[in-house]
Design brief:
With 207 residues, the chain is α/β, with parallel strands linked by helices. It is built from five helices and seven strands; from the N terminus they run H-E-E-H-E-E-H-E-H-H-E-E. The chain has a single domain, classed as Rossmann fold, CATH 3.40.50.150. The protein has a seven-stranded mixed beta sheet with strand order 3-2-1-4-5-7-6.
Length: 207
C-alpha cells in the first residue's frame, strides 16, 4: 500500500462526514433494512454500513482488499454482537464457497473494482439461487453534458479517490451479468461534486 493509500484510508470518514449526515446515511439505512440471512458485503471500506444491519442478518462477511481500510474495519467489527468477519480479498477473487450467501451488499464498491464484470461474476457465484444484490452506486449521468465531464475527469478523479471510476454504467453491467433488477431508484449523492452526484439505489436478483 502506497503513502496516498494510507492517507486516503485515514481521512475517508472525515471526508465523507458531511455527505453521510446530509442524506447518504439514510439511503444506507433504508436499503440495508431488507438485508437478511447470511450476508456478504464487498468493498466494506471503513465500515460505514455496519450500524444499519438489523437482527435479520444471521452472519456478516465483509471483503476489503486494502490493508489500511481493513484495519479500521476490523476495529469496528469487534464491537458487533452479530457474527462478523473481515476477509482481505478483492471482489474479483472472493475466497468463499459458491451459493453460500442469501444477500450481497455493494455500496460504492462496484465503482472501484478493477474488473467490474469479474466482480459481478463472483457476486453471482457466491449468491444462492434467487439471492439478492443490494447496491448504492454513483453512476454515469444520463445527461450527455455531465457524462462528458465525467469522462474527461475520470482519470484524475480515479487517482485522487484511489481507483473510483465516476463514469461507470453500473446498472447496465448488473443487468448484463445474469441479474434481474427488481427495484431501482435514481437519487443524488448529497454534498458532492457534480460528477459524483448521479446515484442509483437498487435490488437485483440472481437469475
Amino acid at each position: 500500500m502506497d503513502l496516498w493509500g494510507r492517507m486516503f484510508a485515514a481521512g475517508y470518514d472525515r471526508f465523507m462526514a458531511a455527505t453521510e449526515s446530509a442524506g447518504l446515511a439514510h439511503f444506507r439505512e433504508t436499503l440495508l433494512s431488507s438485508a437478511s440471512g447470511r450476508v456478504l458485503e464487498i468493498g466494506g471500506g471503513t465500515g460505514a454500513n455496519l450500524p444499519f444491519y438489523g437482527r435479520a442478518v444471521s452472519e456478516l462477511v465483509i471483503s476489503e482488499p486494502e490493508e489500511p481500510m481493513a484495519r479500521r474495519l476490523e476495529s469496528r467489527v469487534a464491537e458487533r454482537q452479530v457474527p462478523t468477519r473481515v476477509v482481505r480479498s478483492p471482489a474479483e477473487e472472493l475466497p468463499l464457497e459458491p451459493r453460500s450467501f442469501d444477500c450481497v451488499v455493494s455500496t460504492f464498491a462496484l465503482c472501484t473494482v478493477g474488473d467490474l464484470d469479474q466482480a459481478l461474476a463472483e457476486v453471482r457465484r457466491v449468491l444462492r439461487p434467487n439471492g439478492r444484490l443490494l447496491f448504492i452506486e454513483h453512476v454515469r449521468s444520463e445527461d450527455p453534458k455531465l457524462a462528458r465531464w465525467q469522462d474527461w475527469l475520470s482519470r484524475p478523479w480515479a487517482w485522487f479517490a484511489h481507483g473510483c471510476q465516476c463514469n461507470r454504467a453500473i446498472v447496465e453491467a448488473v443487468q448484463s451479468s445474469a441479474f434481474s433488477v427488481t427495484e431501482l431508484r435514481h437519487e443524488e449523492v448529497p454534498k458532492s461534486l457534480p460528477i459524483l452526484r448521479p446515484l442509483v439505489i437498487g435490488t437485483a436478483v440472481r437469475n
